[in-house]
Amino acid sequence: MRQTSTAPRNNKLKPSSNLIMNGSVRVRVIRTLLAIQNGQSLASVLDPLLNSLHDGDKGFAHALLLTTLRQWYALERLLDSLADNSIDEKEVRTTIQVGLTQLLYLQVADHAAIHETVEAAKEIEFAHATGLINAILRKVAKNPSKFRKKCDKKHSLPNWLAYQLKQDWSEEYDDLMQGLRQPAPMFLRVNTAVTSVEDYQQALVEFEIEADLVELTSGFNLPNSSDTATSNSILTKGLRLHQSTAVNALPQFAEGAASVQDMHAQLAAPLIHSALLNKLSVKNDDADGDIDTSNNEIRILDACAAPGGKLAHWLELISSDEQSPLFHVKQNDEFVSLVSKVKLTAIDNEAPRIERIYDNLQRLNLSQHDLQQAEKNIELNIVCADATTWQGAGKKKSKLVFDAILLDSPCTATGVIRRHPDISILRTEEDVEQTALLQADILHNLWPQLKVGGYLLYVTCSILKQENVEQMQDFMTHYNNVAAVEFSDDCNWGIEQAIGRQCLPIDSKSGDGFYYALLHKTAE
């Protein structure tokens, strides 16, 4: 997906080498929160926490950890207003915040929340603070609705991030600040090579899992062979579950019938696939006479591909239909192959994340072996490489390699804070600048490798304009052979930008924060 984890690139805190998982549930949650404050990502510490607990305690621990993270900065400000003197020990602060979460957001009984939290302080060897912890929690317990309102009144982000979002999204700011504090809905992408979205929705009903059909309409004005623009329309269907569900409870999940993927993330593959089809269509229209498909290979690239969700989606679109327009076009009242082979390269710079790509493709029956067994004209090559320097042509003289590039760019991931609330703790203001520079390096390395007439889809899961529309505007000043493709008015998602469209996570049913921009290469 992107080249780095949710941990910041310039950690000022050294990650803890050992996360001690013993003691009460609250103690383990406190230690997990301390590890995150020391630089570890939620993804790296969540499983160790849950795996250390009995099944009956896992749900409470998960809710306590995630809710505390989502309300972190609001709880910090509340704590500062409740304390007579500054509380500097982060172990004490964290313990109190865990207690506040129980009282204000999880409706834990007062006596249980207070007693168990005080006991947790003793377990982590901060018994000297038990009087302070007890006093603050008892004060809140006397009027929890008052303190909950105080906590909910403002944002729960670091001030630098809240300020930047206020600058970027002044009209949407209030809704955005509340939206980022809520749990994200769970969406499914149905593998249409296996079943239809509607049939899978019915299968969910039979498993007593309720889900709503979500339809996103996309369109953009693509150039055609007569140098004018043609408006196309793309319908992306997904399912939004009423309640999050363990994947092993989903019908045929292990057999690859569906994948967990945010609804806005499901836009990426259809957009770049449609652009690729347009390029091939223009090439076909410009050709004289019959189509020579004997050596008509196309090459496409998924850059920063891990963990492979968008890559798998693209492969599903390419291989799902034997009459796919990618492989067939009507000529003289007959269907003939438009291309002889698709060579798809996927790169990412972290070997462990490459392994996740293989695992996901294997579950979906989309590995190279599966594609060969199904006699698909697709060659898949997965490479561990740095997108800032990697050259797809190797030592060949011509660097014009790819017909289409999907760049799921590294970003600060501020658009997925609902799913990864540790981001608001781990990110720093300096990370944004460093990330924007990294994005620019990747763009400048990949753009020369795109063929004339080809398309590059730039995607981030950030909601900061510096990484998105401003990045695109700056990029376009460096080249005279790039045109930004305009999205058409029939798009029912996102907010139109000077270049591209921006999705914001502003309500309980919406997808995550994603940015999309489609670039067309007009000349060498």
Question: TL;DR?
Answer:
With 524 residues, the protein is α+β, with helices and mostly antiparallel strands.
Explain this structure:
The chain is α+β, with helices and mostly antiparallel strands. The chain is built from 18 helices and 17 strands. Strand 3 and strand 4 form a beta hairpin.
Number of separate strands: 17
Strand content of the residues, in percent?
A: 15-25%
* Gyration radius from CA atoms, angstroms: 25 Å
> Whole-number average pLDDT?
90
Q: Supply the number of helical segments.
A: 18
Helix content: 25-40%
Tell me, what's the shape?
globular
Q: Which structural class matches the secondary elements?
A: alpha+beta
Runs in which pLDDT lies below 50 for 5 or more consecutive residues are 1-17, 288-294
Alpha-carbon distance between the termini?
A: 29 Å
- Largest sheet report: 9 strands, mixed
